[in-house]
Amino acid sequence: MAAEDLVIGVDGGGTKTVAWLARLEEKASEEILGRGQAGPGNPRAAGFEVAQANIEAAIAAAFADAKLPARTAAAACFGLAGAGRAAEQGRIADWAKSRRIAERVTVTGDAELVLAAASPENVGIALICGTGSLAWGRNAAGAVARCGGWGYLVGDEGSAYAIARAGLQAAVRAADGRGEATRLLEAFQNELGARRPEQLIDAVYAPEMTRERLAALAMIVFAEAGDDPLAKAIVTTAAEELATLVRVLSHRLRMDAGSYRLALSGSVILQQALLRERMLASLTQEMAAPGNVVCVSEPVRGALALARTASPESKS
Questions:
Q1: Where does CATH 3.30.420.40 sit in the chain?
Q2: What class, spelled out in words, does domain 160-295 have in CATH?
Q3: Residues 116-170: pLDDT tens digits?
């Protein structure tokens, strides 16, 4: 198979990078020749050198899975968390060209992949909710906008990190007597091996407690949300924050209620039905509900679609 017949799609997130290899022809879009995976591909969170090494490793694994020698493909699209701005995109694109990964290279943020995977017209709103959160949209006129995605220190509302942090705050407030009693205190102690509440400090501030590991503690809040009022309130607040991201974009892009497609992706929004249902209920209450909802479990499909549709002159 000649290099000009191949296209590469890459989805790089905070915990892993997925690369798929396929044929360039649109009619072969459903056939995946090879799949590869490596570590985090978010250049801002992992660092550019680490992200680039993982992108290259995932692509090499995809070629190996396809039982093909690695070569320069006709086109490639990298959709990366932490690469939503021109500065990050240009840096990654320049590196990819220097490595001769593809003749044509497109670099986007990760939300663009989600919408491309869900909408053949590439029109609608994509909402990502995993470790972090972000909404991005494009209307029929081609206007684009984003909301959220400011990172865990000042943003990421509704995300796993925000939910875990809110749960831990509720737990320690209960331990102090500053807040309501909650099952979250015992649940976090059991999960983190803290025999006494004050030992939560050692667990939470341990060097090995990365942002991703702390975000994974959101599962404790979801597990208790059925019986614990505080845990349920945290999930409800997160759902309302996510709905706000979508609602703001729908208004900014002039998408009427009931007329736009909402593409959902990210481990939290896909796996937690309670969060998803309350987010959609909030949108309905605010008269901003989507016309239809698509759950996207493999955003890398959108990377292949964007790589195929990029013009030969595209160098971004």
A1: 3-120+298-309, 160-295
A2: alpha beta
A3: 999 888 899 999 998 889 999 999 999 999 999 888 889 899 999 999 999 999 9
DSSP lists the bridge partners of residue 9 as: 20, 77
Residue 188 DSSP SS3: helix
Query: What element of type H or E holds 204?
Result: helix 200-204
Beta bridge partners of 145: 137
CB atoms within 10 A of CB 190: 11
Does residue 2 register a pLDDT over 70?
Answer: no
221: pLDDT strictly greater than 70: yes
What are phi and psi for residue 9, nearest 5 degrees?
Answer: -120, 135
Q: What is the CATH number of domain 3-120+298-309?
A: 3.30.420.40
Q: Residue 245: count other Cβ atoms within 10 Å of its Cβ.
A: 26
| Nearest residue to 77 via CA among 96, 58, 63 | 96
Tokens 């050198």 locate to 49
Of 305, 265, 224, which Cα lies nearest the Cα of 110?
265
Q: Classify residue 49 by burial, with Cβ atoms within 10 Å: 0-12, 13-18, 19+.
A: exposed
State both tokens at 221.
Answer: 């809040």
pLDDT at 315: 40
C-alpha count within 13 angstroms, C-beta hemisphere, residue 86: 1
> Which tens digit of pLDDT belongs to each residue from 27-43?
545 789 999 999 988 88
Question: What's the CA gap between 96 and 21, in Å, rounded?
Answer: 16
